[in-house]
Amino acid sequence: MSNADLRGNRPLSPHLQIYKPILTMVMSILHRITGAALYFGTILLAWWLIAAAAGPTYFDFVNEIYGSILGRLILFGFTWALVHHMLGGLRHFVWDMGAGFGKDAREWLAKATIVGSVSLTLILWIIGYIVR
């Protein structure tokens, strides 16, 4: 005979509430979040390109929005998400090549991704302000 209550008695799969967060787990979640944020940033980039094609008046309007404090903060976040996601992809590429699976190597790659993404974002923005 079948037991109708089988689903109610099955153990639940462990999730974020049970596992102790480790750096590589946080980096995996952050990689997914930055990937999703890049969709929003791509819409902003498309809007800017459409404004450039629409004419100088609309282009100036969009540039004024992007030049505001809030606009620059959003663009800074987009830049960081782009750089962080790229470095996370390179970290995964290293793993795809069969390297970096040791505990120390995983931790080093995760820390290098964080430091590298923040550093490269700051460098890009400093260069942008100098060139501007």
UniProtKB/TrEMBL annotation:
PANTHER family assigned to the protein according to its UniProt record, in alphabetical order: SUCCINATE DEHYDROGENASE CYTOCHROME B560 SUBUNIT, SUCCINATE DEHYDROGENASE CYTOCHROME B560 SUBUNIT, MITOCHONDRIAL
Keyword Iron: yes
Protein's name according to its UniProt entry: Succinate dehydrogenase cytochrome b556 subunit
UniProt entry tagged with the keyword Nucleotide-binding: no
Family: Belongs to the cytochrome b560 family.
Cofactor: heme
Compartment annotation: Membrane
Biological role: Membrane-anchoring subunit of succinate dehydrogenase (SDH).
Residues annotated as transmembrane: 37-59, 65-87, 108-131
Family annotation (InterPro entries): SQR/QFR_C/D, Succ_DH_cyt_bsu_CS, Succ_DH_cytb556, SuccDH_FuR_B_TM-su
Pfam annotation, one family: Sdh_cyt
Stored SUPFAM superfamilies: Fumarate reductase respiratory complex transmembrane subunits (SSF81343)
Main location: membrane
Gene from which this protein is expressed: sdhC
Keywords, in A-Z order: Heme, Iron, Membrane, Metal-binding, Transmembrane, Transmembrane helix
SUBUNIT field: Part of an enzyme complex containing four subunits: a flavoprotein, an iron-sulfur protein, plus two membrane-anchoring proteins, SdhC and SdhD. The complex can form homotrimers.
UniProt source species: Roseibium porphyridii
Membrane topology: Multi-pass membrane protein
